[in-house]
Design a protein that fits this description.
With 537 residues, this protein is an alpha+beta fold. It has 3 domains: 135 residues, Dipeptide-binding Protein, Domain 1 (Dipeptide-binding Protein, domain 1, Alpha-Beta Complex), CATH 3.90.76; 90 residues, no CATH class; 219 residues, Dipeptide-binding Protein, domain 3, CATH 3.10.105.10. The chain is built from 16 helices and 21 strands. Strands 11, 12, 13, 14, 15, 16 and 17 form a 7-stranded mixed sheet that branches. A 4-stranded mixed sheet has the order 1-10-9-8, covered by helices on one side. A 4-stranded antiparallel sheet has the order 4-5-7-6, covered by helices on one side.
């Protein structure tokens, strides 16, 4: 190597060294391919304001309690990770055979309930059969219906579910009627938590006064005010959790924590109730929820038995105005033009339908005897929820939007959908629907399958091809095949319009800047994963 070449190489190395110095800056750890990371700290208390005005003390995972509490107090056989993939819960691993119709689960040897009692296969079988006895949720029936012997047990024709088999204390088998990729989603849903059989049978309803689960936090005590009224609940870290232990010592949840307490740093997490919460000072977490709102037609009563009438009326609805009426900073509605929300895996927003002028809509409605004859059509609008003031606002907006079609809308507030069973006047039903896991079957099957309980009794929409596709996807193992079938179903529903998709909901929470690694679970920020959060103080 000559001297000129040596100088050139020396200069090149010097230049590289200078560049490396400036790139590393104050972080020499980069030289080893590592970013500086702050080690999580243990300890402290997380105080969380619940999203409600009144206290909810329901701690039954099959009930209607705070999702935040249920998800951290109990553990399921399986769970969904943040990529919406099935991951181990109490089951350490599982084996699928018989073409997808048999799954054998192997429980973790170290999995125990909060009282130290081991989690067994008997607890798993008992917990699932308990759901089928309760019959308090349409999904419980769909779950039972998928398992061999589940429907017979539901109908009281069998003393146990034949398709749930205890192999030994740590091994349990489930035999499915269908080889669906969605089978495991039921086991990862929020209601399918595992309970200790002996304690539940011993204490019965009193069990949920001080419940015992297997989650990363355990029930500690009820929060009370000076009059000893219950105001919330306290959970403590479960130091015997089978996985990595939670970082914080305790979690306190109450709807009575004040927003001013958040500003005074007495509360760490609150729903994003107010724009007074500065995004420059506080952190805000936002995610999609699994709750959607629809406006269903009485598809068996004329003129709503005609798809074109339903389609034309849907074009009169200004969804953005309705979304504005139901929105708050913490819980706001996004217009939904699809039957399947576009954030579910494999789905994207569909292009908006071709616009029709108002004159063309009026002309087509007149061909069906609506709008131009001077006669009005009485239509009942049913709401099944207790927010009367909100129902009134939505009713007034919808009444004005449908008036050009000659529809005389009448508001009907009901306590149960059973009140509309025998209605012979055409009706619309404002209907909120939440799915427990992000899969289209949990939306389309209960709402649009001709023999599903809701559709058969209240909406009465029938389409043979849709039923065929819904049955077909249940035996589809491949995600791509199921997505293709669901897209075909959505195209069919878009043409048929048995219901008008209105909006889905996004959720926001605000939290103190020193709270680290706070993340939502797939069902939204009201299902916060508190095990990974820690306090940097």
């Amino acid at each position: 190597m000559n001297s000129l070449e040596k100088k050139r190489r020396g200069g090149l190395f010097a230049l590289l060294a200078i560049l490396l110095f400036f790139w590393l800056g104050e972080n020499p750890a980069r030289a080893f391919g590592q970013e500086r990371r702050v080690k999580p700290r243990t300890g402290g208390v997380l105080k969380i304001k619940a999203y409600s005005q009144n206290l909810n003390t329901d701690l039954d995972p099959a009930g209607h309690g705070y999702p935040l509490i249920i998800e951290n107090l109990y553990e399921g056989l399986l769970k969904l990770d943040r990529s919406i993939e099935i991951s181990p819960g109490l089951a350490e691993y599982w084996v699928i055979d018989n073409g997808g119709r048999r799954t054998v689960f192997y429980l973790r040897n170290k999995a125990t309930f909060h009282n130290g009692q081991p989690v067994t296969s008997g607890d798993v079988k008992y917990s699932f059969e308990r759901l089928f006895r309760l019959k308090g949720n349409p999904y419980f029936y769909l779950f039972a219906q998928r398992i061999e012997g589940g429907e017979e047990f539901w109908q009281g024709q069998a003393s146990e579910v034949a398709g749930i088999k205890i192999i030994d204390d740590k091994t349990i088998e489930i035999d499915w009627k269908y080889s669906s990729a969605a089978n495991l989603y039921f086991l990862a849903s929020s209601f399918a938590k595992i309970l200790p059989q002996q304690l539940v049978e011993k204490d019965k309803k009193k069990f949920f006064n001080r419940p015992v689960g297997a989650g990363p936090f355990k029930f500690d005590h009820w929060l009370r005010n000076s009059k000893l009224d219950i105001t919330g609940m306290s959970l403590a870290r479960n130091d015997h959790y089978f996985g990595r232990k939670a970082y914080v010592n305790r979690v306190e949840v109450s709807p009575y924590f004040l927003l001013e307490g958040f500003f005074r740093d007495e509360v760490q997490i609150v729903p994003y109730f107010s724009y007074r919460i500065s995004r420059d000072r506080y952190q805000v977490l936002e995610s999609n929820s699994l709750k959607m709102s629809y406006l269903f037609f009485s598809c068996h009563l004329p003129p709503f038995d005609q798809p074109e009438v339903r389609s034309l009326l849907s074009r009169l609805i200004e969804k953005s105005k309705l979304a504005g009426l139901v929105s708050s900073p913490a819980y706001f509605a996004q217009v939904l033009d699809n039957y399947i929300p576009p954030y579910l895996p494999g789905f994207l927003p569909s292009p908006p339908p071709q616009e029709l002028s108002f004159g063309r809509i009026a002309e087509r409605l007149a061909a069906h005897g609506l709008g131009s004859s001077g006669q009005t059509l009485p239509v009942n609008l049913y709401f099944e929820f207790s927010f009367n003031e909100l129902a009134e606002k939505l009713y007034r907006e919808l009444k004005g939007e449908l008036r050009p079609a000659g529809i005389d809308l009448q508001l009907k507030l009901i306590k149960s959908l059973d009140e509309i069973k025998n209605d012979r006047i055409p009706y619309l039903v404002y209907f909120d629907w939440s799915i427990p896991v992000p899969d289209p079957e949990f939306l389309l099957y209960p709402l649009f399958y001709s023999k599903s309980f809701l559709n058969l009794n209240y909406f009465k929409y029938k389409h043979e091809q849709l039923d065929v596709w819904l049955d077909e996807q249940r035996n589809a193992n491949l995600l791509e095949r199921r997505v293709r079938l669901f897209r075909q179903m959505e195209d069919l529903l878009t043409n048929e319009v048995p219901a008008i998709p209105l909006y889905y909901f996004k959720q926001r929470v605000a939290y103190q800047p020193y709270i680290k690694n706070l993340r939502p679970q797939p069902a939204g920020v009201f299902y916060l994963d508190l095990k990974d959060a820690w306090i940097d103080q």
